[in-house]
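Hi support team,

I'm filing this because I wasn't sure whether my run with pyridoxal-5'-phosphate finished correctly. The job status page said complete, but I'd like someone to confirm that the output block is well-formed before I use it downstream. Pasting the exact inputs I used:
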Amino acid sequence: MTHWQELEHRYFMHTFNRIPVTLVKGRGVRVWDEDGREYLDFVGGWAVDSLGHCPSVVVDAVTRQVKTLIHTSNQFYTIPQIQLAELLVQHSCLDKVFFSNSGAEANEGAIKLARRYGKQHLNGAYEVITTSSSFHGRTLAMVAASGQAKFQLPYVPLPVGFINVEYNDVNAIKQATTDKTCAVMLEPLQGEGGVNLADEGYLVAVQKWCEQKGILFILDEIQTGMGRIGTLFAYQQYGVEPDIMTLAKGLASGMPIGAILAKDRAAVFTPGEHGSTFGGNPVTCAAGYAALKYIIEHDIAGNARRVGQHLAAELNRLKQKYPLVADVRGRGLLMAMEFSRDIASPVVVGCLDRGLLVNRLKPNALRFMPPLVINNDEIDEGIEILDKVLLTVGD
Ligand SMILES: *Cc1c(COP(=O)(O)O)cnc(C)c1O
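And here is everything the job wrote out:
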């Protein structure tokens, strides 16, 4: 263990079982540790570094803004916040934006918005239906919203108002809907919960049901948004339009930001009902504006789609080669490889030793979410390493 890792153990709460590598530098799809070792990065800061590490458009925007105005308060207008909001509205089906600092905080705001809507239009309805294996964040209310017992059990009792039903089962949503329901909240493709794809027609059926009942359809696109699965937003591939959508992770390509987007009719907050000290900060919004502009102008979503197809083909080739690969699934540059045995940890370590960072999604599954600017050659380089590791771990 290095000096830094010893200090971490001494001073930092033990919430992360970290990989024993201290990263000090990043550029493009590569990072370097304190000993100068280079790694190809298929984790991408947990689907955050959409344009890779230290992309010059974001570095320049942040540098310019940090020298001009780092922070003021939301009592005043600031320009980067307005520019980013306008660009998000122009390129989505939503009409209004609110900025937060993280994904969980964006989802909290979305739930508050749905409850305000319930008070104003649905006789005080406040319950939100969410799904099994979902992940919506780590705040207490979002732990209650997320359909995963491992995040909930340490903290019971949890805030009320969330009804959890099976994912990909529209009838379960119908049965759970009562006159207390104000919204349904889903991920269009579940990330943390296992890279679980929505079945054909599921999201359309859920949206139809929400329309029929007059309740809000909320999509958590914190992981799937910003081009990750091959279109700027995932909903565009599924023939649906959310009333409320949340974003975070890749929105500012590495800077901490979250956003709630809503259709006009759902954007019912009035002054004083919601707020944030740091949310909409000029520096993070300048980063978000530069990143989003670049993503749109350079069709980064298209790159994610094309390179994602190549990644899927290569992972499927390994599935043919190694019987212990049980499943390959995902879309764009959000893919998972599942094994028939719990070998994800040794595979992660094997890859690390050979200079590749991959995410252990579950004891028996890996997740791949590299920067969206990655190319086929870099995918091949990573696949070659994974192939070698599977050869040794697999028997
Ligand atoms: C990561 C994630 C969150 C939580 O975002 P934080 O920025 O960690 O609070 C919420 N929803 C989804 C779908 C996510 O992937």
